[in-house]
Amino acid sequence: MWDAALIALERFANPLHMGMLMAGVLAGTVIGILPGLGGIACVAILLPFIYTLDVNTAMILLVGSLAVVHTSDTITSVLIGTPGSAAAAATILDGHPLAKQGQAARALSAAFLSSMIGGLIGALFLTLSLPIARPLVLLFGSPELLMLCVLGLSFAGFLTGGAPLKGGLSACLGLLLGSVGAAPADAVNRYTFDQLYLLDGIPLVGVALGIFGIAEIVDLLAKGGQIAERISLGHGWLQGIKDVMQHWGIVVRGSLIGVWAGILPGIGATAGSWMAYGHVVAMARDRESFGKGDIRGVIAPESANNSVEAGDFIPTLLFSVPGGAPAAIMLGALFFYGIQPGPRMVQENLDLIFTIIWSFAIANTIGAALCLFLSPALARLTWVPFVQLAPAIVVTIFFGAFQSSEQFGDIYAMLGLGLMGWLMKQLGWPRAPFLVGFVLTKPTEQYLWLSISRYDFEWLLRPGVIVLGLLLLASIIWSVWEKRGQKKVPAEEPAEGAAVLGKAPSILFTFSILIVSAAALYEARTFPYLGAIFPMAATIPAVFMAATQLAFDLRTSSTAPGPETRAKIRTALGHFVSLLVFLLLILFFGFGIALAFCTFVFLYGVARMRWFRALIYTGSLLAAVQLMGWLLGLHWPQGILFG
Amino acid sequence: MGQIHFKAKLPVHRWLAVGALLIGLATQAFGAAPYYEGKTIEVIIPFPVAGGSDIWIRTIAPYLEKNIPGSPKFNFRNIGGGRGIPGMMEFALKAKPDGHMVLVSSATNYFPVLVGDKAAKYDFRQWKPLLVNPVGGVMYASPVSGVKRVEDLAKAKNLIYGGISAIGLDLIPLISLELLELDARGVLGFSGRGHARIAFERGETNLDYQTTPAYNATVLPLIKEGKAIPLMTFGQLDDQGNIVRDPAVPDLPTVPEVYEKLKGKKPSGKFWDTYKIFMPSGFAVQKILWIKAEAPAEALRLFYAAADRLEKDKEFLTKTDKILGGYPLLRGDRLEKTIQQAFQIDAETQRFVREWVSKKYRVKFD
Asked: Cβ contact (<8 Å) for B82 and A197?
């Protein structure tokens, strides 16, 4: 085994291979930073380039880019509060507040370092597990995988912050949104309203970008000014490194959670990073600082999301079953070279496996170093008036959301969820449980379905299920016990964010949720029994919780928002309208014209830039998007009137 | 254009037209620009990147570029989701008759038409097949189920087949189970064939099928270890449209052969009718590259000529062997009748299939 490892390592002495690795790292870093574009986009974009390369070089390029996506996506999450990729949403919760406090450099360096260590631990684990990987994967049957998903869902409970009722509701809404589309086994289409677009459900990228990205951008715009006060960067990045060393236990645990999430089919990077975040909150003795800029909340998900990719390689290479979407594309690339991964891969292509592992480890290190090197400069971005950054960010978000399936539906969904995310933020509803619920719906329901249709209810008696069930029970009891001891509970949103909008909108929002849940419940009665379990499990508690919440809302004393808040709300709603206008213009005139027009008008009219600077900005943005589209073979949304 | 002038206009124009025609002929004779010279052919792929059909076309495209005169460039557009329907509709609505847009399709795109899904508003009769690639499927069982040879199937109890969806490719193995009257049921909801195979290895299911390339790479090792027993293939079509043994796995009997072995008579009945209708589009003519029927004959001819050249191209054959799964890349015109037949279903069989999957696998049609 070890000589194959050495043969593979020798490949990197070849300047071509090293150059490919660097190219991959650079591509991955850039794609990671761009909001919404993550691992899938990365591999999909590089795929056309590999058809002229040999298999080792191609894998070096692909793996090199994949290894750093989840390192650099942190930058966007921390600085702008917009997920650089769906998997980086968990980092926002504590990373972005840190940036707002002027500690962006600290958050970034801690994130990069834990990403790197997570990736290396993942690579090491991957190497060590090669001989025992098959029994490891076969250890878990559908019922055990179901229990793991439920365990992951229970973490949503820890992320509800100071508002357990709102948090629970938020998780239920996530589950409900996740059950839109064809149910597993195609038995029934749920909540699709005869829309083809909804058949496959709403893509994760659109949900993450909307609920966190659009919401945060509008909020920042409405607040005005820059993200952070201009204070000395100081030794922020050194502090970040110290933080990681101090919390090394979290790094190791986070990485191992990530590797497991990668190995087990159907979990993926996003769920993995949320599980790592949830576990650190669940295990912490002092929880009140989470969500307000606790460095532990940055370290845990970051160490997990890189190791997930390493874990992903195990089912991909040894079973020919991709652990996640990027791995599926890698699998496709291997097919292209006539390599069909499977049990024989360890005997026949061991050096290729090691090439992949080495690429992953080396790219991880280079990528983290590159990002670390860039972080002081990037942290300065938080000093730029946000209104000047916004057009570029919005344009890339729209572009990114459109790429996942070339359907306008993704953009509608993103804007709709953006408005919802913004309302949730203003009204003090935690958004993290929503995303956790959404992400875990598919695998949970699938494994529930498989468990019941294979074992009926005997699956409940399997030893693995009982052990995991006890673990679940213990974690719930422990959390209740912990809560009794301390009055204060963590809040995702800063306290001043709660119920900013006042009483009437609060009631209205809760009331709409009640109506939606009740309608969804009513609709669920027509579904066949297995297809109905999930919508029922989400909507029945949702209706009760919404009713209770409504009672609370009605009882709270009415505090009318001050004139300043009202002005802020008006600005925010204005920005939503302009996003809608941007969308309409794209629909009619295509992306290029809409981009040019909206960017210029916004910069000139709202950002009060001088006209020629606005013109230069618009021109460069247009050129950059054009170049990106041409270089990477991406497609622009086309308009009805102009192609 | 020259011809229209020739017929309709004054003598002066006639001379001009004759001149133009002559120049046209001359340039043709002296190796003038071939139809696709410097052109880009847009390939619509109604699936996400790196699915089976995506890999298939991306692998053969560079060879087509080389073998079509004028070396056109292929440009790929993946329009995934919605059971492939948005991608199919994009081609149906946007493709012009100039042959600059082609479409890749697979079983996912045929079954909605066959089961009468109203959302699938595309009509294969308006297109012509350029290239066709068959795919094969092999069924195997776990020895734990008591099946040691294919003959044991008849008395085997409680066989469990793992699949993805009753109205996807799994329909064919599921129909086979009914046709052979086995004591078997399908557990559906796996997210891919690979996941179903892992469940087989875990012992959650004891009956499975894989496409031929996946079978060779992932199931043959299991067979060697004694953890799987190969049973049968779904068969392929011969030139007359009869179901024959799969040339890539010639040692295994086909489903109808196994029927004869178990029952001592030729297969017949409703399930056999269904099998005959669904098997070709699921396997025998699974991957098809289409062009609009109104495309210039020249465009079609160039593709067929390229297919002929590739048939003898050693490099192509060895390099793409694994992707093509051990099956030849066929000219579309040779199979046109078979293909158009494969998408025809009589109302009675359609009603039968819909009722059967609704009842047995609780599929709800809108």
From this structure: yes
Contact flag B222-A343 (C-beta cutoff 8 Å): yes
Q: Give chain A positions within 8 Å (CB) of B216.
A: 340
Residue B107, CA atoms < 13 Å, CB-side half-sphere: 24
**Chain B residues close to A403, C-beta within 8 Å:** none
How far is the C-alpha of A584 from the C-alpha of A588, rounded, in Å? Answer: 6
- In sequence order, the β-bridge partners of residue B159 are B184
In sequence order, the β-bridge partners of residue A181 are A190
Gap between the Cα atoms of A254 and A258, Å rounded: 6
Mean pLDDT of A305-331: 84
- Selected residue of A202, A319, A320 to mutate for chain B interface (largest B Cβ count, 10 A): A320
On whether the CB atoms of residues A185 and B361 are closer than 8 A, the answer is yes
**In chain B, which segments carry CATH 3.40.190.10?**
137-282
Specify whether the CB–CB gap between A252 and A133 falls below 8 A. no
Q: Is B323 exposed, middle or buried (0-12, 13-18, 19+ CB in 10 A)?
A: buried
Average pLDDT over chain B reads 88
Residue B126 tokens read as 């308006």
CATH of B40-134+285-347, one of 3.30.470.20, 3.40.190.150, 3.90.1170.40, 1.25.40.80: 3.40.190.150
Reduced 3-state DSSP string for A548-566: HHHHHHHHCCCCCCCHHHH
Amino acid sitting at position A613: R
Q: Which of B360, B345, B354, B364 is nearest to B163 (CA)?
A: B360
C-beta atoms of A336 and B59 within 8 A? yes
DSSP string, A433-463: HHHHHHHHHHHHHHHHHHHHHHHTTGGGGSH
By C-alpha distance, the chain B residue nearest A448 is B189
Model confidence pLDDT, tens digit, residues B87-124 = 899 899 989 999 999 999 999 899 989 998 888 889 99
Task: ipTM value, please give it.
Answer: 0.82
Percent of chain B with pLDDT over 90: 59
Provide the 8-state DSSP code for B255: H
Min CA distance, A523 vs chain B (Å)?
15
Residues of chain B with CATH 3.40.190.150: 40-134+285-347
Q: Which two tokens stand for residue B211?
A: 């496409």
Q: What letter represents residue A96's amino acid? A: H
- Quote the tokens at residue B181: 């009257």
Residues of chain B neighbouring A635 (CB-CB closer than 8 A): 77
Specify the CATH class of B137-282 in words.
alpha beta
User: Could you identify the residue written with the tokens 């719906």?
Assistant: A441
Contact A344 B361 (CB under 8 A): no
